[in-house]
Amino acid sequence: MSELFARAAHWASCQAGRSWAFMLAVAVVVVWAVTGPVFGFSDTWQLVINTGTTIVTFLMVFLIQNAQNRDTQAIQLKLDELIRATRGAQNSLMALEDQGEAELAQAREAMRELAETGERISP
């Protein structure tokens, strides 16, 4: 089930970022606006666009989050490999994203000190 969601989410997020998807959204809004006088700008007419955009927005939140999670994981793996492969790099920084707030703050302060002094900080 999760593999099916992953494939569907990847496909949908790729399609949503294409120019034709934007043009389709513009066309829907234009059709909706043009039909306003036909329906007398009624509450139902307004409800159609409100409901449609709410549903699309709700679903897109999950697609965007899925894409962001996937991209973040890939970037972290690439950074970890660069740290691992770089002589003199601090391997203690690998998988830092899995640490708590206190550990992140401590690492950030250590990096700030390193930037100010230019010296290597022991892990």
Automatic annotation (TrEMBL):
The keyword Transmembrane is assigned to this record = yes
Parts of the chain that traverse the membrane = 20-39, 45-64
User: Coiled-coil annotation: which residues?
Assistant: 79-117
Give the superkingdom in one word.
Bacteria
InterPro entries with a match to the protein in the record: Iron_permease_Fet4 (IPR007251)
Recite the UniProt keywords alphabetically: Coiled coil, Membrane, Transmembrane, Transmembrane helix
Q: Does the record's keyword annotation contain Coiled coil?
A: yes
The name of this protein is Low affinity iron permease family protein
| Source species | Paeniroseomonas aquatica
Taxonomy-wise, where does this protein's organism fall, top ranks first? Bacteria, Pseudomonadati, Pseudomonadota, Alphaproteobacteria, Acetobacterales
